[in-house]
Give the backbone structure.
Amino acid sequence: MRIGAHVDSADPLAEAAARSADAVQFFLSDPQGWKTPPPREDADRLRAAPVDVYVHAPYVVNVATLNNRIRIPSRKLLLGHARAAAGIGAHGLIVHGGHVNAGDDLAKGFDNWRKTFAYAAEQGGFGVPVLIENTAGGDNACARRLDALARLWDALDGYDVGFCLDTCHAHAGGEELLDLVDRVKAVTGRIDLVHANNSKDAFGSGRDRHDNLAAGAIDPELLVAVIRAADAPVVVETPGGTDGQRADLAFLREHLAGAAA
């Protein structure tokens, strides 16, 4: 199992070494901005490195919304980041499931996701696996609860779409972690990546606040059980900088090895 962390984008390979990480995830541009990322000078190093690379799309991307001023730029930005991620040999581009505004028809949000994949196909494809991530809050979210996720996957039938399971988001979103992997795979058929995060807040809070694995409101042993069942690469997005994440990676390796023994 490949285990890594979300790191600063300036020198991801140095950040991986500092954490003894097998994988890294980072942004290619300002996560709150709308700029398509420029080519990276370290692209050759990233492609050749033994570290698995993942890219997270900007938070502003919301291809589900009915607001044309956000949806259409979001499609283009997602495709731009996917192409840039492919250029550095990334294993996947992670993007949040998005939402519609209050009072809007959620079904149209799912259809807008379908149109996004159709748009990318018309442009020659994303060039890298797109992994939709479950989200923590919002009554009009496309990927907070599994019933909505099932409708999203139905809308994307026929497209190669991957899934990123965030443990904090599931807990905050009101999905019990017990047997979560089986319930997710019954919808998506796959889990391509796990964002292993504890939560600072209570179950069903809707709040997206990550905590370190041995802290927070989620039983750490339950986190380990979810990660073991998912049997997918793992990225922590936890606080504490290098030291905090290095401790989280060591925690995972110790407990996953103990479970295997």
Summary: The longest strand covers residues 52-56.
